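## Example record

The block below lists the input lines for one assembly entry, exactly as stored, with component labels intact.
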Amino acid sequence: SQKIEQNSEALNIQEGKTATLTCNYTNYSPAYLQWYRQDPGRGPVFLLLIRENEKEKRKERLKVTFDTTLKQSLFHITASQPADSATYLCALGGSAGNMLTFGGGTRLMVKP
Amino acid sequence: DAGVTQSPTHLIKTRGQQVTLRCSPKSGHDTVSWYQQALGQGPQFIFQYYEEEERQRGNFPDRFSGHQFPNYSSELNVNALLLGDSALYLCASSPTGHGYTFGSGTRLTVV
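Predicted structure tokens for the full assembly:
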């Protein structure tokens, strides 16, 4: 069955450092992968989309890589700030219609 | 420009009751998807509506049904509520192949 794994343990880093979050998947051939940010009690907010034929995508302090051979995506936040503290979700889509399949999310805590 | 609007924000129901949740998509978006998010987990796809028809469905029982209106707004209905239906219900709208815009969700508690 399809499986998307994100580190369920919280990631704690110091302000100014680069945060790196991992998303691994199995039994899936996505056409694209998306990353979302979710704050407590709120809906997810779209951050970046990367397609299967793209290796890397950047947006301001965010960078996403997508390796379809390793079946893995890495999400980087450079020069992290306490305001970046949130849960980050990866989601795969496109192999079966338009539905998104989400991972369980990783909680990021950036300490001042 | 309003994003995705969901109502109500919170709801408490008793086991066996029925509930209707409502969603207005972002202006210009004609596709609406519904997700269920249990505490501490990622959202799970329930179904998607386009042109007033259910286009795709996730692994949810028939107790979960929906509707889309000509103005693209949508409703999610859940019959015979179970304690396990307690969750945050999220509505998302999108142009195909792009990032979804999610509402803030409806927190449903079944007691």
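The interface with chain B takes residues 4, 6, 31-32, 34, 36, 41-49, 89, 91, 94, 96-105 of chain A (CB under 8 Å). DSSP finds no helices and eleven strands in chain A.
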